[in-house]
Amino acid sequence: MIGNLFTMKLSQNRFGIIWIALAALIASGSAFGETVVVNFTVSGFDSDAPEDVISGSFQLELNDNTNEVTSISSVSLTINGHAFSVSELGFSEYRNFNILGAQGQGLGSSTGISHGASHDFWILWNKDTSAPREFAYTASVDGIHTTRQFDTFSIEPAS
Question: What residues pair up with 28 in beta bridges, in sequence order?
Answer without folding.
Answer: none
